[in-house]
Amino acid sequence: MSRLQAEHLYKVFGRRPEEAIQRLEGGADRDELRADGTTAAVIDASFTVEPGQIFVVMGLSGSGKSTLLRMLNGLLDPTAGRVLFDGQDLTALTAGELRAVRSRKISMVFQHFALFPHRSVLENAGYGLEVQGVPRAEREHRATEALALAGLAGWENSWPDELSGGMQQRVGLARALATDADLLLMDESFSALDPLIRRDMQDQLLQLQKTLKKTIVFITHDLNEAMRLGDRIAVMRDGRIVQMGTAEDILVTPANDYVASFTQDVDRSRVLTAGAIMADAAPDAAPGTAPGGSSGEGPDGASARDVLAAAPAVVPADTPIIELFTPCSTSESPVAVVDDRGSLIGVVPRSRLLAVLGEPMTPSAAPAAARTARTTDADADDQGVAKAVARA
Ligand SMILES: Nc1ncnc2c1ncn2[C@@H]1O[C@H](COP(=O)(O)OP(=O)(O)O)[C@@H](O)[C@H]1O
Ligand SMILES: [Mg+2]
């Protein structure tokens, strides 16, 4: 069962929302409704989030992200559609039941995290537990643990104004972690931070996620952030989800020009991986390797050995290509890409590395990756490419 499931969610602000939904179902867009003073904030959003996944919703300001998020935890009632949390229909709960789910199972982290200025960092981190009625001793114990997870061990007795903006945001994260909620909803949680601190927080979230395995819905207007964090990404435009997929799906096969325009700003060298861009390891693709085969191995085995021996680096398929520049600059031989058992599965020559940086990658630009997937049709080729791309 999916942890979270959105089924044909709509949120319309303004008069006669039911009528607006009929028009939207008939294909009307946001602009047409706006003429009547009605805002279609979210239009027909459907998706599932699996336990332990980070699901990112990416879109420009006003595209409907926050409205969507507020429907996911029941803060806003959908105009139409359902939200299922662990199979339970949130839209069918009473106000009291909903409050209980929200305080125990769902935590929110906002962009501007409001700390209580006259409470210690520890008390701030334990606030969610206080709301739940957890006794003081347990509250302090769990808040201390959560602060340590968020990288704030030793700051328990400080006051909020003694912390930098990034540290205050960590307190927000700690508050969410302390509650033990399964579902974290993060609305532009890192957007107000300086780029370096922001990257730090992204790293920390990914690190935490390895052990905590929460289910996270993360909202951002930044595609680079989306691609670093998201197991899956939904791109929103004017209230609608216009594409949903992995970082590599979006980078490799943007659904339309709108999505493609975002991907131009993405740092390909951190999103694309060796496995996604590698060429076949056949001798013609790897000049300088001699077919051999003296010790009973076939010619393939022998040339693979030569390729591996000559390679300036031997890397797993999920290595971001940014790590290949230095080895490629020191040798004419291509970098060798190997599987879990160390067998050669492809090579990255310098020319290929440079070629993929400038251009949007099309499936045909990665024949080796596609062939590795042993697929025939174009769709499946995309998956072959996609599988080989990692997070930035
Ligand atoms: N309470 C509200 N009443 C009227 N319009 C709203 C309300 N909340 C949001 N909107 C409108 O819905 C659209 C989506 O807003 P929002 O979900 O906040 O987008 P985002 O989080 O992507 O910036 C915007 O046009 C916004 O003005
Ligand atoms: Mg918002």
Can you describe what's shown?
This protein has 392 residues and is of the alpha/beta class. The protein folds into 2 domains: 49-267, P-loop containing nucleotide triphosphate hydrolases (Rossmann fold, 3-Layer(aba) Sandwich); 274-387, no CATH class. The chain is 41% helix and 19% strand. It contains 19 helices and 13 strands. The chain has helices at 17-25, 30-34, 65-72, 95-105, 121-125, 127-132, 136-149, 165-178, 195-212, 223-229, 247-252, 257-263, 268-271, 274-277, 299-310, 325-330, 350-358, 367-372, 378-387, and strands spanning 4-13, 39-49, 54-59, 80-85, 88-89, 106-109, 183-187, 215-220, 232-237, 240-245, 314-316, 335-338, 344-348. The strands form 3 sheets. A 6-stranded mixed sheet has the order 6-7-8-3-9-10, with helices on both faces. Strands 2-1-4-5 form a 4-stranded antiparallel sheet, with helices on both faces. It has a 3-stranded mixed sheet with strand order 11-12-13. Helix 7 packs across helix 8. The protein is globular, with a radius of gyration of 24 Å. The structure holds adenosine-5'-diphosphate and magnesium ion (MG). Magnesium ion binds next to helix 3.
